[in-house]
Amino acid sequence: MAERFDVVVIGAGPAGEACVNTLLHGAAKVALVERELIGGECTNWACIPTKTLLRPPEVLGESRRAAGVRDTRLDFAPLAAYRDYVVSHHDDSKRIRSYEEREVTVVKGDGRLEGSARVRVNGRTLEAEHVVVATGSEPVIPPLPGLAEAGYWTNREATELNEIPESAVILGGGPVGVELAQFLARFGCAVTVVHKPDRLVNREDPQLSELLRTQLEEDGIEVRTGVVGERVRRHGSHRVLELSDGREVRGEVLIVAVGRRPRTGDLGLETAGLEPARGRVEIDERCRAAERVWAIGDVTGVMLFTHNGKYQGRVAAQNILGEQARADYRAIPRVVFTNPEVAAVGLTEAAARAQGLEVETAVIDLPASIARPYTYERDARGTLGVVVDSERRVLVGAWALAPLASEWIHQAVLAIRAEVPLDVLRDTVAQFPSYSEGYLSALRELAV
Fold first, then answer.
1. Rounded Cα distance, 408 and 404, in Å
2. Superfamily designation of domain 3-39+92-138+261-320
3. What integer pLDDT is reported at residue 72 of this predicted model?
4. In percent, how much of the chain has pLDDT > 70?
5. Are 230 and 243 in contact (CB under 8 A)?
6. What is the pTM of this model?
7. What residues does CATH 3.50.50.60 cover in the chain?
8. pLDDT digits over 13-23, tens only?
9. What is the largest CA-CA distance in the chain?
10. Would you identify the CATH topology of the domain 147-258?
11. How far apart are CA 6 and CA 292, in angstroms?
């Protein structure tokens, strides 16, 4: 016999959880289906453990640059123990009980659509007025000859490690690759990053990519860009990656971090009239995929960030509850939690011009413009770039590589989202001394 619900959510990662929590405010009767752990990839194997592991190396880097600090060192054993505590030792029983106390039915197993209003999981049939697909993404594993035989890590093994390897080769120089590279290098691991494009984090401004490369190389990381891994072999306890330029790099571990793809396999999407386009579930601006079927988070292929998935979860839930919500992706922040941090939002100069916008840009050296970098550290550093639509006289993009950039990028996020006039931004009073003062300095550099 089928069990009846208002909404069935397939996937209990951050997007699915945000959707459920919003639905509960509307008193909806909800079932939550999860194949692994409540919290999904981000909570258990990605964002949360990664940022936990990155914090001590960040503190080490800051201490080395701060005046009056000495004798700092890293100790991995207590960090690993704390990481396990933060991820609840991969035990989601408390999270399940929390949902059940709020009258959410949690079902563990692989959920599969049987039409637009029915989900089958572990022999149970769940019927609902609406189904939300929030199945997330999975790592892309390149078809490298010898890779499977040699053995490799993904982000899961890298965030679950209990000992720092002596050396590592990281295939991929995007956010995951460079974060793991700096974390391992600062714990004493010899790290080589291999990246197919000619620059790191290549969706960002080229100047930012070069600044990041310089920082990684200062940490002793070998960076190889513009080359491709062609095959892998074992040599004793090491993995050897043969490159397209005829050279080889080797490490005790090989970490694959070349990207992620939406998880759409075996979901029964075709039974609801859905055919994944380019490997993703296509949605409209309301996050609707089909009549009575919604999709949110990485499975949509729209900006694979946890915070964007949570946003889509709220949008979908609001529409299910009868509101008229539409997703606006113009001001979704992008952060790489290196030290110093990389932060960006909106359009790069190249992307803005590709859209036909007439733009003005400014790039400033923060220590040359504001006082805060000198109060924060010796050998003060930091760069900020802004992109302005000359015709509308509003900010459309910003990027920075600087301490705490993940926090003060949100000033630009709000300015872009609300289309705050340039005159208002220039007339804003920033706290002294703060990194936010940099925006005033950058905007004064513009001719518009």
1. 7
2. FAD/NAD(P)-binding domain (3.50.50.60)
3. 86
4. 100
5. yes
6. 0.96
7. 3-39+92-138+261-320, 147-258
8. 999 999 999 99
9. 70
10. FAD/NAD(P)-binding domain (3.50.50)
11. 11
